[in-house]
Structures are given as structure tokens and as C-alpha cells.
Amino acid sequence: MTDAPEDIDASAHEAHGGGLGSRLNWLRAAVLGANDGVVSTAGLVVGVAGATESQAALLTAGLAGLLAGSMSMAAGEYVSVSTQRDSEEAALAQEKRELREDPEAELAELTGLLAARGLSADVAREAAEQLTERDALRAHARVELGIDPDRLTIPWHAAAASFLAFTVGALLPLLAIVLPPASARLWVTVVSVLAALTFTGWWSARLGEAPAGRAILRNVAGGALAMAVTYGAGSLLGATGI
Question: Quick check: 219 and 31 in contact, CB under 8 A?
């Protein structure tokens, strides 16, 4: 019975802290960010390739798309994670105030939460008391709020990761469209992009423990459609001289 608080504390830490689940979420976000970089930049440069064979124009468009996309991803992630952190800090501040103003009610609440997880009333009470004695705020944060006070989200880390992931993904179609000779650059780009999308589709499915075949098919089909549409639009604009 005396081991219950440690077991509960460890379980909560694993579920809500910076452990395996958190690392998988970051890795999944990195894969999706790279995937976005591949698709958006490929669509852009292939569309420009439909209108012109100028290497300078392709490089300019690709770099502009890479910078705009990576900055947009970083800014969006920064705002999103900042909002999440603000919410976590506000929830912790409220919990701290409630613990100070009515500790008995908070102890009863923690007991109820632990009992709802399957512990008997006596064990839940003992566990709640021991967790409260050790660190009441941390116990409520993990069990009640699902927050680890020691591992709050960091906006700048999220923004940097998104920027880097998108940039890495975007470099592939950019290099594929500007390095080969004009006669081969389109097909080199298409094949490279579809290969990259196959990999990111497979990896995202693996991270989510989902069937790989459908994930790869959706990923490749979406990328192929994006390139086909933008190439068609670029060819049409190039033909009309707009």
C-alpha cells in the first residue's frame, strides 16, 4: 500500500510529462513539418517550371517559398505553443491558489480522482495524503490537470523545430529542380518528391501505429495532385504569356 503514491506519480509522469509520448509527438510534428515543406515547395517550383525553364526563376521561387513557408510554420507554432503555455501557467496558478485557500477540499478532490482511476477509497485517501505531503501542487497538476510543472512547453523550441523541419523538407524539391539539366529537372523533381512522400507517409504511419499502405497512398496522391495542378496552371499561364 505504501508504494501506491510512487506508482501513481510515475504513471502520471509517463502519461503527461516529457517522456516517450512527448518525444513521439515532437517527432511526429517534425515529420509532418518536413512533409509540408516537401509538398508546398514542390508544388511551387513545379508550377513555375510549367511556365518557364529559367533556372534563376526556379531558384528564386523555390527560395521564396522555402523562406515564407518556414517562417510561417515557425510563427504559427510559436503562437500556438505560447497560447498552450499561457493556459498551463494559468491553470497551475489557479490550482496553487485553491490549495492555499482550501487544502481540505483539494485533498478530497485528489482522493476522488485517484479513486476514479480504480483505487479503493482507503488506498486513494492514503495515496492522496502522501502525494500532498510530498508536493501538493505537482500531484494536482499531474493527476487533475495532466500537466508536468517541470516540463511546460517552450514556444521557441517548438518554433525552431518547425522552422528546421520545413526547411529540410523544402530543400529536396528546391535542389531537385535547379541542379539537374533542363531536360531532366521536372522528372527528377517528381520522382524525388514522390520518394520523399513515400518515406514520410510510412514514418508517420509507424509513429501512429497505423497501416502504412493507406498513409503512403494518401501522402503520395496528395503530393502528386498538388504538383499536377500547379504544373497545369503554370503551363497555362506560360502559354498565354501572362
Answer: no
Q: Are 126 and 4 in contact (CB under 8 A)?
A: yes
Which residues are within 8 A (CB) of 194 and not within 5 positions of it... i.e. 6 or more apart?
220, 223, 224
User: How far, in Å, CA of 106 to CA of 136, rounded?
Assistant: 9
- Asked whether 145 and 19 are in contact (CB, 8 A), the reply is no
pTM: 0.74
Q: How far is CA 5 from CA 10, 127, 170, 208, in A?
A: 8, 5, 48, 31
DSSP 144: I
Phi, psi of 53 (to 5 degrees): -100, 5
Tens of pLDDT, residue by residue over 10-56, are 444 444 444 555 556 667 777 888 999 999 999 999 999 998 888 99
